[in-house]
Amino acid sequence: xxxxxxxQPTTRDPIGVTEARLYLVAALLVLGNLLLPALVHRLxxxxxxxxxxxxxxxxxxxxxxxxxxxxxxxxxxxxNHLLTGMPAGPVLPSxxxxxxxxxxxxxxxxxxxxxxxLGALAALVGLHQxxxxxxxxxxxxxxxxxxxxxxxxPGLLLQVAGxxxxxxxxxxLPAGSGDAAxxx
Length: 184
Prior knowledge:
Blueprint: H1 20-40, H2 46-50, H3 55-64, H4 66-84, H5 92-111, H6 118-140, H7 142-171, H8 179-182
């Protein structure tokens, strides 16, 4: 006797580094991280306020796992810099580290079995901001770090609300050949 269990939509589809589709998925995520900044940089302080280069890194880490999040987090700032000059050279290493950290944190949060709801993403984005603003607070003072946080508020909302919406939509798509698709 076998039990038939209907497949539930998955919020995760981790991809290993040996799978060719990792590189296709990462390329698409990096493309998203090229296009979104191109849009928001048309607004005054758009890049600083909306943090567009982090959006698809968060989504990639959560949905596709650590390899996709870290690869997207590494390539997005570098490719953006090579093609557009943004982020500027002096902040490129720091922004790349922040991006890689977000991709890894997103993968770790999703691996814990959390659904990509507003609360889970708010906690993830809050932790990421605390870790990225701590050096600024130590170096320039808490008021400077709080001012930076205030400027970033629209981007944090975009990451939480937009990330939750996109991840919920992606959960309705069939999983690929990753562990989630095999039921492991």
